[in-house]
Amino acid sequence: MIYWAVFSPIIGLFFNLLTQVAVLRLAPSLGLLKSIFFVFICGFIMVCLFGFYIFFVDKLARTDAACYFLTSLVSYNGLGYCYFHFINLGETARRIRILRELYDNKSGLTEEGILKNYNSIHIVEKRLERLLKNKQIILKDNKYFVSNPAMLFMSNLIVFLKLLAFGKRSEHDID
């Protein structure tokens, strides 16, 4: 069944989506970030099960099955990365949040009202609050420290990929 190999990353992503809905409804205390990682692993396991089926049960040559399996894993990882950023965009992007607030407030909002909610102090406080809640940083002696090296690793990886792709660490670097 070569079709399973071709569609397994999409099936894995669909399973990821269904699991995300179930997890957020059945275990909301898990939180969004942890639930995204959990459901990514669930979808990854689903893709692996398809890969194992193709490798051990289907009548494909072992090298063909291994190639389909590896391609499926790479494709699923790419889809999972896009899924993460799609969810993240809706939760953290200020433009999206402002648009939602404008849509929800039928009488409109003034610029002053918007700026009141989105001043730099308020934004930094919210981000620090979220980082503390997710145990990505800790507060000790009135100072913040990184507590989860996995997040720091991901941050450094993103900087490395930006350097690799664009030749600079950030879009704010001067050319």
Question: What topology emerges from the helices and strands here?
Answer:
Layout: H1 2-26, H2 32-56, H3 62-92, H4 94-104, H5 111-117, H6 120-133, E1 137-140, E2 143-146, H7 149-166
Antiparallel strand pairs: 1-2
Helix pairs in contact: 1-2, 1-3, 2-3
Question: What features would you describe in this structure?
Answer:
This protein has 175 residues and is mainly α. The protein has 3 domains: 2-92, no CATH class; 93-133, no CATH class; 135-175, no CATH class. It has helices at residues 2-26, 32-56, 62-92, 94-104, 111-117, 120-133, 149-166; strands at residues 137-140, 143-146. The chain has a two-stranded antiparallel ribbon with strand order 1-2. Helix 1 (2-26) runs antiparallel to helix 2 (32-56), helix 1 runs parallel beside helix 3 (62-92) and helix 2 (32-56) packs antiparallel against helix 3 (62-92). The longest helix is centred in the middle third of the chain and has 31 residues, at 62-92. The chain is elongated. It starts with a helix and ends in a 9-residue tail after the last helix. The mean pLDDT is 84.
Strand content: under 5%
Number of domains: 3
Distance between the termini: 51 Å
Basic shape: elongated
Low-confidence stretches: none
Mean pLDDT over all positions: 84
| Secondary structure tally: strands | 2
Cα radius of gyration in angstroms: 21 Å
Helix percentage range = over 70%
SSE class: mainly alpha
How are strands sequenced across the largest beta sheet? 1-2
Largest sheet: 2 strands, antiparallel
Order of helices and strands: HHHHHHEEH
